[in-house]
Specification:
The chain has 470 residues and is of the alpha+beta class. The chain is built from ten helices and 23 strands. It has two domains: 178 residues, no CATH class; 276 residues, 4-Layer Sandwich (Anthranilate synthase), CATH 3.60.120.10.
């Protein structure tokens, strides 16, 4: 491994050799320079700027962005159509250069809140207000890892003075090398957390579940997903690198996500892919139906068998599969749906899981799919519009980006946009020594209020465990 000064000298020399490839005098658009990074990154470094990261430990993949070459925001029912137009303009005028032939591309973050409507002032304020309702974020510095190889991506708006650009990018490289040289924080013993209260509390939760069950009996809803928020306070400020390392360790099969624009960091460790589009190939996860885990192999196997056999859990899962299948049937050919769900086993919960796929038709795109798929019955309910309207009226908190989605967009060689978007679950807003955790449970005919409360408790405990080590 190169020493920090040697690494910086190497990167800055390569920058000086290749920066002349960029069309700096071009009026409008963006240019990206992609350079090999002679160090494999497994976690994103902390550079002290607004940034984001997506890390999948099991797949050995990382995308991280820092700084802001550009951003576009939107809200309301047409938010993704607005960002589609911005993204299409971006890729038409995005000049990318990969002199080291890394095979990576420049990328942007696409993310959006659970509801397209602006937050309502009558509800308690929440840190998610730091994030716009929907966001397309093109970072100035990008980092990528795949199959044991890493690269960096430097991006600038055009036109730009070559000398100014060279100095700015040399500065980014210096910050990056300094951050890479910083030692990883030592693991700490778990620190106790103090609960600051749940919204709703248990009594209000039980009343909400009973109200939801009454709507289901009346036939206006088949399912609705209620969520609650738990405030926690630590005995020390939560260290972001320790927190993300703990989440990656606890949830190697999940996408670990971090987004920070101002003071609050938004983190998630989600098993659920909203949609992945590569070329014309589409993949979607249907996840619904949950059981706990056990340290005893025999007890754990019994919990899995009970989950597979549960009529209530299988009905809840089938609703999600049917909803996803209906969207794919409208937008794709060669739709494939498993004959029966599998079981996805995570650190302290297991879920019924069906991976669906198809081939995207020429007259549609990932923005259409994301608009049609989100929110699925797994996080909202069924029928989609009725469940969303009921939650808007009844749920006592703003979800912000919890149960929204976020992921990476990047152009492929043909000029199409590839994307990998994830539903924001096992989600927390972290600032200093305080955190607000979110979890939900699907309410269907036969749901028991206390059982659903316990289910949310299992999900909250997953992130709380990581916070204890942060």
């Amino acid at each position: 491994m190169l020493a920090p000064l040697a690494l910086l000298d190497q990167l800055q020399a390569r920058l000086d050799e290749t920066i002349g490839l960029l069309p700096t005098a071009t009026a409008g658009g963006f240019a990206s320079l992609i350079l090999e990074l002679p160090r494999t990154l497994t976690l994103a470094p902390e550079l002290g700027h607004p940034g984001f990261s997506f890390t999948h430990g099991q797949q050995g993949e990382l995308r991280a962005g820092c700084g802001m070459a550009a951003q576009w925001t939107a809200q309301g029912p047409g938010r993704l159509e607005t960002l589609r137009a911005r993204a299409q303009t971006l890729i038409r005028h995005w000049h990318q250069y990969d002199p080291d032939e890394t095979g990576f591309a420049g990328f942007a973050l696409l993310g959006f809140a659970a509801s397209p409507s602006p937050a309502r002032s009558a509800r308690p304020p929440q840190a998610g207000a730091e994030l716009p309702n929907a966001l397309l974020w093109l970072p100035e510095l990008g980092l990528c890892t795949r199959a044991g190889q890493s690269a960096l991506v430097l991006t600038t708006p055009l036109p730009v003075a070559p000398g100014i650009l060279r100095e700015r990018w040399r500065g980014w490289l210096a910050q990056l090398v300094t951050a890479l040289a910083a030692p990883l924080p030592e693991p700490l013993t778990p620190s106790p957390l103090t609960a600051l209260g749940s919204l709703p509390g248990l009594a209000d939760w039980q009343a909400l579940v009973q109200e939801a069950l009454a709507e289901i009996r009346r036939g206006s809803l088949e399912k609705v997903v209620l969520c609650r928020r738990l405030g926690l306070k630590g005995r020390r400020s939560f260290d972001p690198r320790r927190l993300l390392a703990a989440l990656a360790y606890l949830f190697p099969a999940c996408q670990v996500i971090s987004i920070r624009r101002h003071g609050t960091r938004f983190v998630a460790a989600t098993p659920e892919r909203l949609v992945r589009v590569v070329g014309r190939q589409v993949e979607v996860d249907a996840i619904a139906g949950t059981a706990a885990r056990s340290a005893s192999a025999a007890a754990d196997a019994a919990l899995t068998a009970a989950l597979r056999a549960s009529d209530k859990e299988r009905r809840e899962h089938a609703m999600v599969v049917e909803a996803v299948r209906a969207v794919l049937d409208d937008c794709c050919d060669e739709v494939r749906v498993p004959a029966a769900p599998g079981v996805m086993q995570l650190h302290n919960a297991q879920h019924l899981w069906s991976p669906l796929s198809g081939r995207l038709r020429e007259d549609t795109d990932l923005f259409t799919l994301a608009t049609r798929l989100h929110p699925t019955p797994a996080t909202n309910g069924k029928p989609q519009a009725a469940a969303r309207d009921w939650l808007d009226r009844v749920e006592p908190l703003e979800r912000g980006w919890y149960t929204g989605a976020a992921g990476i967009l990047e152009p492929d060689p043909s000029g199409r946009l590839n994307a990998d978007l994830w539903v924001l679950l096992r989600y927390a807003e972290v600032s200093g020594d305080e955190a607000r955790l979110y979890a939900g449970a699907g309410i269907v005919r036969g749901s028991d209020p206390l059982a659903e409360w316990r289910e949310t408790g299992h999900k909250l405990a997953a992130v709380a465990t990581a916070l204890q080590f942060a």
